[in-house]
């Protein structure tokens, strides 16, 4: 029995996103897992990271998010909603994020979940050691994460040479930047395309495909992002010359680019 | 004399982001331009796109953001703050976005500006013609856009083989996806690195570099993204075989990848 947190962001209960959330809950519970939820719209989640997050200020005269986040986290002065979300993540073996793709990213309410919950000392600057623990190490090491995205446009626009750019590259700031950074093993993203124009048969097919992914949540292979501390980044910043020779950009940070290019 | 809109997102008036905003206003006004501002924190901008944006609902029983956005835009039922921002963009010759990079993207409050302001019929589905006018065509054709980003980490982490991925690729969902899509000519992004640990000399150097970019706002060459309707995408979705041969991913959508890889 594992614990899975589902963080989701669509206010319409009948939306495809929410239908797939229901399927997640049902499928995972049927497998004997415990399911936690963060229904960001339902919770009226505070999206905006601002001074109100810090009831006690290290420096009342200058708002540094980094300094105040670190101090609040270390001293138990965090906003209660932020601390509660951190506890849910820490209690989970996997976290699934389900959202519609808006302008090639998360809805603001979910971006604000990361902005606020990913505190200094937890998601970055872990153990007060700067960038020592990141990209494969960190507070969430050993946990899994996966995105489930409802995309409005057609799949061909997100193909390797599609006009929008490949979906997994558009999501790289989230999968690699926001999830692998603090230590999660990140599974290839799941997406539905043409999500606003689906027939009921399309929806059924999407549900079947998503259920298949859910069943393998704990045994599918994660995206083979390169570990900062695994030898590929001798200085902790830049790839060694002998690694991914001749490559640059996102794909150079994935050990097996063949599988990554076609997730 | 041109009109420039600056959309910015940092609540601390003494932050680097806000210092560079002040410099933008000063520099552009000195050049004789009119400057408009959207101080998202100062305006208490509503970040979350939800049913409250639609006072009149096409379908009160099912919230489709696409359908309601299009109907509200076409019939003058939009939220007043959304309509006001659209008017500011339409009145401008250039729009500059200034923000700190949080988890490899915009702060939620700015993401919510795009989520809400980029309505169906304006920023997508222009002229009610589906995807006919996008990526080089659209409501904002003839206008320029530029990002000015305060990055916390060191520049080497964002180098072509740096561990975070190249900054301009991390920003591609914004520059290409949110700005070029509705027709803007997008200039290479401006960034400061190590922004939380700068000496006053570093700040002076950053200001000088930013001022230099501002002075050339209307004559610097934009990123040469490929136009959807320029012949490179015969079906409007996927690159023609003879274009960017052997390439896939973001860089295939930039005509001159040499300059794009090192902006």
Outline:
The structure is a homodimer of 263-residue chains. With 263 residues, chain A is α/β, with parallel strands linked by helices.
General description of the model:
Two copies of one chain form a homodimer. Chain A is of the alpha/beta class and 263 residues long. Chain A has a single domain (3-225), classed as Flavodoxin domain (Rossmann fold, 3-Layer(aba) Sandwich). Chain A is built from eight helices and six strands. In chain A, strands 1, 2, 3, 4, 5 and 6 form a six-stranded parallel beta sheet that branches. In chain A, helix 4 links the parallel strand 3 (94-100) and strand 4 (144-150). Chain A starts with a strand and ends with a helix. Residues 258-263 of chain A have low confidence and may be disordered.
Q: Give me the Rg of chain A, rounded.
A: 19 Å
Q: What percent of residues of chain A are in strands?
A: 5-15%
Could you estimate the helical fraction of the residues of chain A in percent?
25-40%
Find the CATH superfamily of chain A.
Flavodoxin domain
Assigned CATH architecture of chain A: 3-Layer(aba) Sandwich
- Assign an overall shape of chain A: globular
**Could you state the order of secondary-structure elements of chain A as H and E?**
EHEHHEHEHHEEHH
Q: In CATH terms, what is the fold-level topology of chain A?
A: Rossmann fold
Mean pLDDT of chain A: 96
Q: Which class best fits the helix and strand makeup of chain A?
A: alpha/beta
How many structural units, i.e. domains of chain A? 1
What distinguishing features does this structure have?
disordered C terminus, globular, 263 residues, 6-stranded parallel sheet, Rossmann fold, homodimer
């Amino acid at each position: 029995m594992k614990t899975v947190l589902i963080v989701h962001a669509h206010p319409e209960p009948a939306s495809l996103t929410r239908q797939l959330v229901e399927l997640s809950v049902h499928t995972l519970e049927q497998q004997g897992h415990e399911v936690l939820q963060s229904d960001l719209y339902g919770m009226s989640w505070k999206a905006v990271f601002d001074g109100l997050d810090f009831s006690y200020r290290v420096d009342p005269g200058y708002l540094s998010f980094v300094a105040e986040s670190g101090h609040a986290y270390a001293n138990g002065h965090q906003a209660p909603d932020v601390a509660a979300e951190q506890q849910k993540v820490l209690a989970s073996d996997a976290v699934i994020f389900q959202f519609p793709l808006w302008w090639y990213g998360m809805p603001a309410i979910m971006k604000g979940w990361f902005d606020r919950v990913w505190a200094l000392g937890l998601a970055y600057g872990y153990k007060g050691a700067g960038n020592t623990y990141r990209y494969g190490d960190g507070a969430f090491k050993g946990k899994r994460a996966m995105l489930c995205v409802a995309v409005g446009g057609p799949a061909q626009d997100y193909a390797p040479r599609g006009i929008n750019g490949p979906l997994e590259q558009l999501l790289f700031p989230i999968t690699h930047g926001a999830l692998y950074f603090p230590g999660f093993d990140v599974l290839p993203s799941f997406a539905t395309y043409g999500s606003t124009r689906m027939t009921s048969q399309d929806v059924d097919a999407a549900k079947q495909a998503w259920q298949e992914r859910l069943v393998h949540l704990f045994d599918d292979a994660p995206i083979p992002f390169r570990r900062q501390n695994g030898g590929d980044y001798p200085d902790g910043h830049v790839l060694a010359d002998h690694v991914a020779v001749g490559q640059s950009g996102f794909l150079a940070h994935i050990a097996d680019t063949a599988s990554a290019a076609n997730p």
